[in-house]
């Protein structure tokens, strides 16, 4: 293994950490039984170790990236809604004053 390569175990643990998932949540998100995930997480010298499915290895970084972008989008939308609500609660529009905001 070269210096740049990481173990399968580290690969999966990094993804779980990035997404703040428990093993149960991560297995469910991947659509695999928890036992399969646990086998993937075993040290490669263990009898319990199983190689990660090639499709998961290939697409997991992409899926994690999309999930994180989705979460950021949701947070940004929530922040925008809170900001607009706060603005509406702190100010009124005076129609005679052509839409100028005045503090309540």
Account of the 3D structure:
By secondary structure, the protein is mainly alpha-helical. The chain is 62% helix and 8% strand. It is built from four helices and two strands, in the order ααααββ. A two-stranded antiparallel ribbon has the order 1-2. Helix 2 (23-30) crosses helix 3 (34-41). The chain is elongated. It starts with 7 loop residues before the first helix and ends with a strand.
Write a brief caption for the model.
The protein is built from four helices and two strands.
How far apart are the termini? 66 Å
Described by the principal axes of the CA atoms, the overall outline is elongated
Strand content: 5-15%
Strand order, biggest sheet? 1-2
Q: What number of structural domains do the residues give?
A: 1
- Helix and strand pattern: HHHHEE
Mean pLDDT score, rounded?
A: 80
* Uncertain segments: none
- Total DSSP E strands: 2
Helix/strand/pairing category: mainly alpha
Over the alpha carbons, how many angstroms does the gyration radius reach? 23 Å
Enumerate how many helices there are, as a single number: 4
Percentage of residues in helical conformation = 55-70%
Report the sheet with the most strands, covering strand number, pairing sense and barrel closure: 2 strands, antiparallel
């Amino acid at each position: 293994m070269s210096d740049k390569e990481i173990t399968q175990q580290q690969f999966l643990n990094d993804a779980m950490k990035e997404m703040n998932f428990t093993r149960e949540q991560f297995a469910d998100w991947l659509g695999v039984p928890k036992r399969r995930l646990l086998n993937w997480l075993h040290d490669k010298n263990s009898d319990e170790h199983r190689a990660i499915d090639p499709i998961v290895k290939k697409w997991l970084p992409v899926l994690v990236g999309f999930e994180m972008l989705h979460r950021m989008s949701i947070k940004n939308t929530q922040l925008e809604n809170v900001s607009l609500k706060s603005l509406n609660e702190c100010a009124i529009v005076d129609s005679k004053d052509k839409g100028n905001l005045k503090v309540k």
